[in-house]
Amino acid sequence: MNDPKFIKLDQSFRPLWCLANLCIVLVGLERRTMDLLSDILSRMRLTGTLYFRTSFTSPWSIKVPAFEKAARFHFAHQGRCFVRIEKDKAPVALEQGDLIIITRGAPHTLYCDPTTEDQAVMLDEVVEKSGFTGSGTLIYGETGTNHETQLICGHFAFDENANHPLIEALPSHIHIRNYGEANGHWMENTLRVIGAEAGREQMGAHLIATKLSEIIFAQALRTYLNNEGADKPVMAGFADPAIASALEAIHQDPAFPWTLAALSKIAGMSRTSFAIKFSRCMPTAPMGYITRWRMQIARQSLAETNAPIIEIAESVGYHSEAAFGRVFKKVFQTAPATYRRQFQGSAQA
Fold first, then answer.
1. Fewer Cβ atoms within 10 Å of its own Cβ: the N or the C terminal residue of the chain?
2. Domains of the chain (ranges plus CATH)?
3. Is the bond leading into 114 cis (omega within 30 degrees of zero)?
4. What's the rounded Cα separation, in Å, for the pair 14 and 43?
5. Which 3 state secondary structure label does DSSP give 69?
6. Cβ atoms of 64 and 111 closer than 8 Å
7. Distances (CA, A) of 234 to 238, 246, 284, 339
């Protein structure tokens, strides 16, 4: 799948902030001044790719290869199957309506029942045997059986050099049971539309299904943060009201000359208590988080614009190009001007 010559579906779309905002409007939530999740995913340039809708009939077992720097997803539109991600751990039972996101694109096996797991066929071979051309439904398995599994499959990817502690801290996979019902009627309807559009050959079907699938990633991540992820490292910082308030302030105005005193005041805590709690929840101290986020913004500006480096430096809180250059080089092991030349040269190539 790293070079899917048989699939012409790979498309990049606008940053996810517009889709995440749509997600918020649909569920009727009151927007805050700064939506942390939208800002992070937007800066990381999340793009979606929808591979296909499947019709697998028993018996079947398929090996999906690794895909670096991407999060694969499978939604059980109809039927059920098992997903084996790690050999030494139990497989995930994916029931109808369930969603699984394999966050780091690890290789995995999809199969209909335990008796077929060891008979797995590589995905490329399945695609070739099925005659799938990149449109319609990927049909594979025995004919004349009522045991059918329909999956909607694809992946989400970020800019190659983009990173954030929130994404880095995600587990190997996120499994959300009865995903549509758990997130309300609007999500159920969204999933029905994706299921109906994926695999259709009508004009615009793929574009509609893929854009809607990007909403699913944001909603799945939010669901995870609000539930089992709420007490895990890094996730806990976004779930904690005091720490989240400070994070929102940082993201709202990253160029502001933030101090520990200013952030602790926003959090409603003493400086010492805030610093301890922040470092316990997050993988870095408050000022370290600010530096990393500023450098992500600067990296994106260098890659996507021709703005003078001093303007980019000032946009993230540095009034000296030399000081900005030292910090940028420490984070990315290269000078800002060199990074821009390398990135833009690679893009042109």
1. C
2. 17-226 (2.60.120.10), 242-348 (1.10.10.60)
3. no
4. 11
5. coil
6. no
7. 7, 14, 10, 29
Contact 138, 53 (CB under 8 A): yes
Phi and psi torsions of 195, nearest 5°:
-60, -35
pLDDT digits (tens, 9 = 90+) for 299-321: 999 999 999 999 999 999 999 99
What DSSP designation does 240 have?
S
Name the DSSP letter for residue 78.
Answer: E
190: phi > 0 → left, psi -120 to 50 → alpha, else beta; which? alpha
Both tokens assigned to 234: 């890094």
The position carrying tokens 């996120």 is: 174
Residue 243: CB atoms within 10 Å: 22
* Regions of the chain where pLDDT drops below 50: 1-34
pLDDT confidence of residue 181: 67
Handedness of CA 9, 12, 18, 23 (dihedral sign): positive
Q: Which two tokens stand for residue 203?
A: 């004009």
> What pairs with residue 31 in β-bridges?
none
pLDDT for the residue 11: 38
Percentages (nearest 5) of helix, strand, coil residues in the chain? 45, 15, 35
